[in-house]
Amino acid sequence: SPKMGAPMPAKQEVPGVKHIVAVASGKGGVGKSTTSANIALALSAMGLKVGLLDADIYGPSIPKLMGASGQPEVVENRIMKPLEAHGIKLMSIGFLVEETTAMIWRGPMVVSALNQMLREVAWGDLDVLIVDLPPGTGDVQLTMAQKVPLTGALIVSTPQDLALLDARRGIAMFEKVAIPVLGVVENMSHFICPDCGGQHDIFGHGGAKAEAEKMKVPFLGEIPLTMEIRQQSDTGTPITVSNPQSAVSKAYGLIAAGL
Ligand code: ADP
């Protein structure tokens, strides 16, 4: 887009990183970051070397979710050492500047910050780098899709119509720039009541699966709305780490295996 000032260099590999997978959602608050973190951890539990890049500049939540804080050490010539938590390498704008600083950045600054967090980091050898994108389909997401050599994108949506509509836009954006959509995940798919044991479809149920089928992209699985997911995210030890035998962690594992 002509609005974008500082361009990212043309698509070039990130040395040592085999696959880069973007996690996207049409709108905020659908659980994109929670899904990114748990899938990254599930991939790590499968024995892969994993990194997690928080590209959600305006609302970085990976530091809190992964229980990581502090500033990255600069090793040589501007190159930063990623932080590490639960066996995963991490980079986030939350480690670099005050959140309020990043909040006032315009597109070009955001793109150059993303470029720095992607390419000026000593990731080492990684099998997969999960990129938690900002919500929506704006210039930043489009630039990432065009300039970063993505293996593919994972779309997170709730079953709600509005989220689905936005997710559809996300799928269309990736298809337009020829990035394969690896699959769709339905988050907050249903609620199992701890008191009555019944299943309640708070935001509806099955919508993302139907949509994925319609758009001919794989449906990778559904994650329920549970207290444990939210509580563990808040403590900085996601459920995949704290309770790997739970049904939810197994569901994250299946999604990771389906990528
Ligand atoms: P996004 O990245 O899409 O903005 P987040 O991952 O930050 O969304 O999630 C928003 C809030 O919802 C967080 O408080 C998170 O802990 C909670 N949350 C996400 N997914 C679930 C879930 N499946 N069950 C319960 N809470 C969830």
UniProtKB/TrEMBL annotation:
Keyword annotations of the record: 4Fe-4S, ATP-binding, Hydrolase, Iron, Iron-sulfur, Metal-binding, Nucleotide-binding, Transit peptide
GO MF annotation list: 4 iron, 4 sulfur cluster binding; ATP binding; ATP hydrolysis activity; ATP-dependent FeS chaperone activity; metal ion binding
GO biological process: iron-sulfur cluster assembly; mitochondrial respiratory chain complex I assembly
Physiological role: Binds and transfers iron-sulfur (Fe-S) clusters to target apoproteins. Can hydrolyze ATP.
Complexes and interactors: Homodimer.
Family: Belongs to the Mrp/NBP35 ATP-binding proteins family. In the C-terminal section; belongs to the Mrp/NBP35 ATP-binding proteins family.
Protein name: Iron-sulfur cluster carrier protein
Species name: Pseudovibrio axinellae
Full-protein positions shown: 128 to 386 of 407
